[in-house]
Amino acid sequence: MGDFIRTHRDVAAEVRDNPNAREADSTPFRVLSLDGGGAKGFYTLGVLFEIEALIQKPLWSCFDLIYGTSTGAIIAALLARGESVTSVQGLYKEHVPTIMRTNDARRRTRELQRLARQIFGDAKSDAFKTMVGIVTTNWLDEDPMIFKSSVSQAHGSRGSFVPFYGCEIADVIVASCSAYPFFDPHTLATSKGTVQLADGGFCANNPSLYAIADAHLPLANSRENIRLVSLGVGSYPQPPFFKRAGRAIRDWSIVKHIPSSDFIQKILDTNTSSMETLYKILFKDVPAIRINQKYTEPELATDLMEHDLAKLERLTQKGRRSFGAHEEKLRSFLLSTLG
Q1: How far is 153 from 310, CA to CA, in rounded Å?
Q2: Which of 70, 149, 152, 230 is catalytic?
Q3: Contacts of residue 173, Cβ cutoff 8 Å, sequence gap at least 6
Q4: pLDDT tens for each residue of 123-144
Q5: Can 199 be counted among the known catalytic residues?
Q6: d(Cα 27, Cα 215) in Å, to the nearest integer?
Q7: Which residues contact 276 (CB under 8 A, 6 or more apart)?
Q8: Catalytic pick among 171, 184, 199, 251
Q9: Residue 177 needs a FRET pair 20 to 30 A away by CA distance; which of 71, 146, 169, 287 works?
Q10: Are 39 and 108 in contact (CB under 8 A)?
Q11: Which residue, 237, 143, 163, 138, is CA-closest to 9?
């Protein structure tokens, strides 16, 4: 791969020493952005499987910056520390159905925390091989809180910047995935103080806008030099009402809110579309690929709490097929300077 592969530490040093270094660099700056969507992240993994097969390299080595929200945060963190897509798929098949079929929000949260700790241990952001951004929501202040791995991503206050606010990866992932009322908010001690955090999807279920802002502003890439690959989780019909009602009855933490699944999904879907519209308006000159196919077949009805593994594996198959419609452009984006 010649001189292409550089760690985020190398890029950070370039920008620190010469803020305009990336402006003069003709190598495309590649950004991977991964939406939230709970169990529907199986679709994202289908697309990523094909991308990894296309480049025949670990994904972290192809992307200079990986952003993720909620389930996208899990995938982003695993890829950035060097995991293959096949490895991530194995973890999802083993654990996602178990967590999502857990009946109580408190128990579901504990299971998520246990799993995050099992997978990431006490590792911090220096375990990543490329730059990362993880989106969470400050639940009390109603603000986005983005955990970044490199000072070169800071938009200000560089002197006090602490990667990931000093937090461990496991805690940040749990925070980004805490979609209330299905999961409890996550209280976390950070370098900025103690905060109560919730799912990043409440402020940026599609984190592309934040990712492009980092790439263009503090990382000093010209717009035309950025290559954005933005992956959704697909769009599907909602499950039948009786299925959602049955889930609520089994989960006493949301029994008073049987329609809450519909409501939360509507919020996330609207947020996703809003962020996509904004980055098209604000960064319309940034070359981008967006993969997020819509399906209308009743048999594909699903939501973020899906735990039927057979259906989730169908979402993976749909993701792999969605890749096909964008293969040539992805080839141009990702292989133009790779050896």
Answers
A1: 40
A2: 70
A3: 73, 74, 77, 116, 120, 134
A4: 999 999 999 999 999 999 989 9
A5: yes
A6: 13
A7: 206, 208, 230, 290
A8: 199
A9: 287
A10: no
A11: 163
